[in-house]
Structure to design on (352 residues):
């Protein structure tokens, strides 16, 4: 048994906010408006089968007169598309509706996941507001009792909060099962790490959002704190304290700007994920790590949500009384209760 050793690896109730404008999201690629192909009217889909796995039971719902439910499109990248589909599935289950996913959502997901959800062409949002159900930042009582007249989910275009879908987590994990070639990429890398030594090892994935998110936070508050090595050192020490006495530790970085990460971690013993054709490969790699350290952004969040280990996240990076904190980034609606928040904010920092 090797104690305390690490190795390099050389092988990524505050009022809801109704965001009617698609402002800069957590994972935004500034894409074009999806093409509008058809209108959707409330309809009843006869003898449709919808399979939901709930926390304590599995049920297949086969129901006559099953009302449709769809969700609007967003312009974000992988993590944002995942949250839209997850919210649709969670709300459909709560309201016993048939979820219909638009092409503008699924075309960003189906190349990477084995998704099994009814697909429809891109929709023109209903012109009459009475057909819309607006969601906010987190699940509310009204979201659990959507009127049968309403069949189009609008409002917050980036419903990251787990409150929308955590009640069907098994279903979410099933829908977001990575395709075989992506799994093979991640498994090969993890197996290569484990072959480095002959003793038991604990692999900790670190997701670093290094490109644009800092600018986004600064646009929300001039006092926003950007993730730095003080946080990562603290997070890494958390795992050293918990596991280094019984296991060899490996820290593996997944980063959206490798030059930035190599400079930031140049004096630390870490490995770097190999290049990949798409971010989904790195997400799959993170999910296969024993534990995860997050910075911020929905990409890392989803890697942690789909995994089974311990998650540490960066907290207190925005003023606690700011509008964006209250309406969009409430930790207790965004991060699972069992996840561990680590703050590096000096005492009194927000008082200045």
């Amino acid at each position: 048994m090797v104690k305390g050793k690490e190795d390099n690896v050389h092988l990524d109730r505050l009022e809801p906010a109704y965001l009617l404008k698609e402002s800069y999201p957590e994972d935004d690629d500034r894409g074009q408006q999806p093409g509008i192909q058809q209108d959707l009217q409330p309809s009843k889909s006869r003898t449709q089968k919808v399979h939901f796995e709930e926390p304590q039971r599995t049920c297949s719902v086969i129901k006559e007169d099953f009302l449709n439910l769809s969700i609007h499109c967003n312009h974000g990248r992988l993590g944002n598309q995942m949250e839209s589909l997850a919210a649709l599935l969670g709300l459909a289950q709560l309201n016993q509706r048939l979820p219909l996913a638009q092409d503008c959502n699924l075309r960003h997901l189906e190349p990477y996941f084995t998704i099994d959800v009814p697909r429809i062409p891109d929709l023109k949002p209903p012109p009459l507001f009475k057909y819309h159900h607006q969601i906010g930042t987190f699940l509310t009582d009204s979201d659990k009792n959507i009127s049968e007249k309403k069949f189009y989910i609008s409002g917050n275009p980036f419903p990251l909060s787990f409150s929308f879908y955590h009640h069907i987590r098994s279903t979410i994990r099933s829908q977001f099962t990575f395709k075989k070639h992506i799994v093979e990429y991640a498994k090969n890398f993890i197996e290569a790490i484990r072959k480095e030594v002959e003793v038991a090892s604990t692999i900790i994935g670190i997701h670093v959002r290094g490109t644009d998110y800092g600018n986004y936070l600064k646009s929300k508050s001039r006092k926003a704190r950007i993730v730095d090595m003080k946080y990562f050192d603290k997070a890494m020490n958390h795992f050293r304290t918990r596991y280094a006495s019984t296991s060899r530790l490996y820290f593996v970085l997944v980063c959206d700007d490798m030059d930035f990460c190599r400079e930031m971690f140049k004096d630390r013993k870490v490995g770097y994920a190999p290049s990949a054709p798409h971010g989904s490969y790195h997400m799959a790699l993170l999910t296969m790590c024993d534990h995860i350290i997050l910075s911020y952004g929905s990409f890392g969040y989803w890697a942690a949500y789909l995994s089974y280990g311990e998650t540490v996240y960066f907290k207190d990076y925005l003023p606690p009384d700011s509008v964006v904190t209250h309406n969009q980034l409430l930790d207790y609606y965004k991060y699972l209760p069992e996840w561990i928040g680590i703050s590096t904010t000096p005492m009194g920092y927000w008082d200045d």
Remarks:
- The first strand starts at residue 6 and ends at 7.
- Residues 78-95 form the longest helix (18 residues).
- The chain is about 30% helix and 20% strand.
- Residues 1-65 have pLDDT under 50 and may be disordered.
